[in-house]
Amino acid sequence: MSITVDFPAPVRDWILQNLTRGVDAQALVKELVGHQSAPEVAAAMVEAVTAALMYGTPLPADKLEVGGARAGYEPAALRVPAGPLIRLGQHETRVLLRLQRPAAVLLDGFLSAGECRQLIELARPRLNRSTVVDPVTGRNIVAGHRSSDGMFFRLGETPLISRIEQRIAALTGFPVENGEGLQMLHYEAGAESTPHVDYLVPGNPANAESIARSGQRVGTLLMYLNDVESGGETLFPQVGCSVVPRRGQAFYFEYGNGSGRSDPASLHASSPIGSGDKWVATKWIRTRRFVPRIDAAEPGMK
């Protein structure tokens, strides 16, 4: 049996701020109980905000159901064509591995050696410290969880970029316009990316506004542009999977299932570079046409 209770916005926002700061959920429940909330209501409030952060769903409004069924994440089938060899226009790529969760595929020969070299040459003079969107202002800030240099290409910026974007669309089944601008990242020795998810958690105005404009992120394609001497693996800690970067290979994973929830099993990181360096091109895919901010303050704008 479930009941519906009031969930005041100040309480919800207080829970959100503290969870974002890393405060333990049980400590928040205890604090709410100390302020006269019933234990089951306090636990439901904290759990509701935790679920929104975990699954990338909207924060609960002013009412909350207590005692109802808990919804998790049901993975959807990967949209990538079946079979060991995938033809993408005039290009062929071979499937090396498929995963059920996160729904993913590892591809060999997605890019040619020449395409990898050209991307690096185009990106190198335009690199800056990698940035992310500040959750409060929506402005680009230096990424605390990523010690790399990066830049973005505009959609269709060059014939090479356009050709690769058409190939990505053929692979994923999403039109080119659903993709954000191609991001280039360069990691030198010691550089890494700590665990994070790529979908946007709508718990702040910047992300909520971005989702309203362009929809949620539902897929990521990582394209490895060089062989790394040691380190630099793409790690998925929740499923015990790691991808060793090899030139021309690509790893595509999806984390949206059509129900409005995102897959927390898509949590991933890049291990520190032991020796050598690492170049990777990333394409984020949205549920609908990507519309950049007018002031170009969001990834994919530059």
Walk me through the topology.
Elements: E1 3-6, H1 9-20, H2 25-34, H3 39-55, E2 63-66, E3 85-88, E4 91-99, E5 103-108, H4 113-123, E6 128-129, E7 131-133, E8 140-142, E9 149-152, H5 159-172, E10 183-187, E11 193-196, H6 205-214, E12 217-224, E13 230-231, E14 234-236, E15 241-243, E16 250-254, E17 268-270, E18 273-275, E19 278-286
Helix pairs in contact: 1-3, 2-3
Short description:
Its cofactor is L-ascorbate. By secondary structure, this protein is α+β, with helices and mostly antiparallel strands.
CATH fold-type name of the largest domain:
Jelly Rolls
Helical stretch tally: 6
Under the CATH scheme, the architecture of the largest domain is: Sandwich
Indicate the mean pLDDT.
86
User: Numbering strands along the chain, what is their spatial order in the largest sheet?
Assistant: 3-4-5-16-12-19-10-9-6
Tell the overall outline.
elongated
GO molecular function, one term: procollagen-proline 4-dioxygenase activity
Protein name: Procollagen-proline,2-oxoglutarate-4-dioxygenase
Domain Fe2OG dioxygenase: 178-287
Keywords: Dioxygenase, Iron, Metal-binding, Oxidoreductase, Vitamin C
